[in-house]
Amino acid sequence: MKLTLRTMFLALIAFAFVEPVSAQLSVTVSFGPPALPVYDQPVCPDDGYLWVPGYWAYDPDDGYYWVPGTWVEAPEPGYLWTPGWWAWEGGGFLFHEGYWATDVGFYGGINYGFGYFGEGFQGGRWDGGRFSYNRAVVNLDVTTVHNVYNTTVINNTTVNRVSYNGGEGGLTVRPTQREQAVEQQRHIPPLEQQTRHLQAAHSNPQMRAEANHGKPPIAATSRPGEFSGRGVVMAKSEGAPYHPAPSRSGATTEGAQGTAGRNTPNVANGGLTHARDLQPHQIQTAPSSGDPRADLQYQKQQQKLADQQNKEHQKLQQQQEKEDQKVMKHNADQQKQQQIEQRHQQQTQQLEQRHSQQQEQLESRHPAQRPTPHKPE
Hints:
By secondary structure, the protein is of the alpha/beta class. Helix content is about 30%, strand content about 15%. It has 6 helices and 14 strands. The strands form 5 sheets. It has a 4-stranded mixed β-sheet with strand order 1-8-7-13. Strands 2-5-14 form a 3-stranded mixed β-sheet, with no helix packed on it. A hairpin with a 3-residue loop joins strand 3 and strand 4 (about 65).
């Protein structure tokens, strides 16, 4: 019986470490992350540590923020890190979370540097149970790290600091057959120390792009979560001229100007997470059609639609607040909280998109939009 329970326990642990490569945050952002900053790599702290490149993460309230590159001890011998990456998909930017596997998968063709030049990893390799480092690529202290070799790497990737794949100005690289095969391998999600590292970056206001303008004060660290001391490296410069992000709330949906003065929130940029963030719907001023009775009827239809949509706002807000209270009451872990937040954001975006479509349909029926019948002379 003890053997059976132990076997089941080990099987559950193994299952918990299986993570598909397509795992991603469901946050949809209409504008891409800033360019990758220019910085030096800190010295590898010890044998068995692998480089995890820095990247831009996103928070609906704080916008993009920099997660410093760092050295992380591999979870198991033979495992390599595939960096996370942003991609333009379905009308917005989605983040594909990084993972550990026995080979390096697709990471958008992004040149993160230090061995991650867009495909695979050139900074080292596993020799049996020990990791060998390529001195020509990564920063080492040979008095600490002894298993090394020296192979010059010819980097054929276009040298730029673009941090996303697809979309305007993004990379156009597609996964190779080998990288697609990695999707079927056993994956290990980011380790606990990597999660804490992410949280430390998120809690530091200076890591936000709005504060550092693409040049974070902490670009890389020698160990996860250590944001002070000798192992901290500052960015030399931003990777490209920084452009402030569009407003994350109260913005006008692209292409909506000229539709009777509509003030539709931009739900595609990831800034609206909860129904409470939505602005109340109001009837819009419309041009006169010359038919007072038709204009009055149209105004009543607008008021009815606005009342209905605001009731739907209130209903969704109450539902989301109940779920938030339940999460707090049961002291749910961060992963569960994140799942709830992502679902709330999706609900809010879908609701407002539907409302925008309803408004467009109503405006198309306005008497002033109808063609005037031609009168014979």
